[in-house]
């Protein structure tokens, strides 16, 4: 088809109406875009185990981007070679033996669907989907880590997130990048290899599909979507997006609660 697009969508706050469900109109629009010959890809900070059910619900047959680009794999094609960004285990061990341990409540390292939890306790949240992990190990990372992780999450003590990120940037900026979450979860910091973001991931997939950046449309709502929206030919921020993302985007659509992804696709991409 002429003018084939690579349509990349974030999940939470974008294609999802809630933590557990796709927005129905967005689901319909993305499936129609696929039927019309466009390439639809999910790019999320979630692990594979917490996103593949949405992939299957959309009937996708493309690679999926997890951990904000640290893990790219193809659930439907075994010949596709996984693309992984990994933080050396020795860096993790050194980091958690440092003064950092005084400022955190818990930490969670992930490699594909293997989870490593620093402290076993009630700080573990539902969004880790522990029951569906390939494996879960608890305890000091110097004893449990048997893979170089794709990334890790830190749960800091309240009010300590900025101090922890300053520490990471001062001592580890050549190796890792970090950012904290928004709203009530602003004490959660995600950490990945320094060159990891959704933009570098979709650049790899654009080359895989021979799609030029001008033909990429990307949808997002959060801080971890900024690079992706800036890389895409058209970066679309949700109305519920943070201000920083709206400033980086080419345009804004309706909120995820108002089927914003579907609204944009119906206006500009899908045939009537």
Automatic annotation (TrEMBL):
Keywords linked to the UniProt accession: Hydrolase
A molecular-function term among this protein's GO annotations: magnesium ion binding
GO-annotated cellular components: cytosol
SUPFAM superfamilies (UniProt xref): HAD-like
Stored NCBIfam families: Cof-subfamily, HAD-SF-IIB
Name of the protein: Cof-type HAD-IIB family hydrolase
């Amino acid at each position: 088809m002429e003018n084939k697009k690579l349509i990349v969508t974030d999940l939470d706050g974008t294609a999802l109406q809630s933590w557990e469900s796709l927005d129905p109109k967005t689901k319909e629009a993305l499936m129609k875009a696929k039927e019309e010959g466009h390439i639809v890809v999910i790019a999320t900070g979630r692990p594979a185990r917490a996103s593949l059910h949405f992939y299957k619900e959309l009937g996708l047959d493309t690679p999926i981007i997890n951990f904000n680009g640290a893990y790219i794999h193809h659930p439907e094609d075994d010949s596709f070679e996984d693309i992984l960004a990994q933080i050396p285990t020795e860096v993790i061990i050194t980091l958690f033996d440092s003064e950092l341990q005084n400022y955190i409540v818990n930490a969670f390292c992930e490699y594909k669907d293997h989870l490593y939890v620093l402290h076993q306790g009630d700080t573990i949240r539902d969004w880790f989907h522990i029951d569906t992990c390939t494996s879960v190990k608890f305890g000091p990372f110097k004893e449990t880590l048997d893979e170089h992780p794709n990334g890790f999450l830190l749960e800091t003590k309240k009010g300590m997130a900025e101090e922890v990120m300053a520490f990471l940037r001062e001592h580890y900026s050549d190796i890792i990048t970090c950012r904290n979450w928004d709203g009530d979860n602003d004490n959660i910091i995600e950490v990945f290899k320094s060159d990891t973001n959704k933009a570098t991931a979709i650049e790899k997939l654009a080359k895989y599909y021979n799609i030029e950046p001008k033909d990429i449309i990307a949808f997002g709502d959060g801080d971890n979507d900024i690079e992706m929206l800036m890389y895409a030919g058209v970066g679309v921020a949700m109305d519920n997006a943070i201000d920083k993302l709206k400033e980086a985007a080419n345009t804004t659509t309706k909120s995820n609660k108002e089927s914003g992804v579907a609204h944009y696709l119906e206006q500009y991409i899908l045939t009537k």
